[in-house]
Amino acid sequence: MMRNIPLVDLKAGFKPVKDEVMKAIEDVLSGMNLCLGPNCQALENEFALYCNTKYAIGVGSGTEAIQFALLACGVKEGDEVITSPHTFFATAEAVAAIGAKPVFIDIDPLTYTLDPEGIEKKVTGKTKAIIPVHMYGQAADMKPIMEISKKYGIPVIEDACQAHGALYKGKKAGSLGDAGCFSFYFTKNLGGYGEGGMVTTNNDEIAETIKLYRNHGHRSKYEHAVFGYNGRLDEIQAAILRIKLKYLDEYNTKRREIAKQYTLLLQNTPLLLPEEAEDRKHVYHLYVVRSKKRDALQEYLNNKGVGTGIHYKTPIHLQEAARNLGYKKSDFPEVESACSEILSIPIYPELEQDSQAYVAEKIEDFYGNRF
What we know:
38% of the residues lie in helices and 13% in strands. The protein is α/β, with parallel strands linked by helices. The strands form 5 sheets. Strands 1-9-8-5 form a 4-stranded mixed β-sheet. It starts with 9 loop residues before the first helix and ends with a helix. The model has no long low-confidence stretch (mean pLDDT 97).
């Protein structure tokens, strides 16, 4: 019997927290303190405590988090920023938005994160930041990246938008570089019911600068220190996120349990399964497999009621928007190989065992019946 199993089930995630969320929204609307109010301030304190950083500054999205962090680290028009072409487009978009140039390097094929060995070759006098992306819920290899940062005096801005609660050598994502950037988009491990983002840092100057940029450069009433942006975290989203933050570790534990079960169920298929580096704790924002027959497998699963996704099908260096950067096909073979084979299958804390077994069964059927 065919079932319908979505890639992400937002309705299932809402049910357990519905009463708390609806009360929180009502409380916000009753007080009508809608901008940078008590919930935003409390969430900033609670998230900083969670990440073990001195500051957390709420902003309007993960994209703004990266953009404001770049500005706060002194990146300007004409500067270069080293990052990965295998990430959501917003990583490079934030660089381009301030007039800087994204400079790409290839990835580690097992973790899908920035390959540290490629960084130093791309450092020039124009390099003003490095953005390692913590992909799919697993942190990049930060130790060698931070060594390069120290050697050349280049700030490191973590794109932790997919890695809420992930660990690297026992330290939280977002606490490892000069700044950490998070998205609270509704599909994330910690997601609201709209848009939102956060920047974490231990640097006083970075924190104060981001507070200026997110709020029109506002320093005091009618006094503006810089030409800033409208990039504030919504008070209703902050109230919702405070509730969901309480359950984040529990949700991440469930994701890890589901990932472990998938790895057991799929071990005899031809799929290349995700690997957790020994010095890291993966929080499985996505469970990404690789198949030489990816497109056929995706079509088969979709026809059997199994939701799938591709994160991401076209690497940034081959996007139309990036044409002026001068890259071509074959420049980053590991990224391009991964993008032709990766497939995301359903994973969320509420995914039931029988649904997971169904997904695995249909994958086995595909290989047994077709190849």
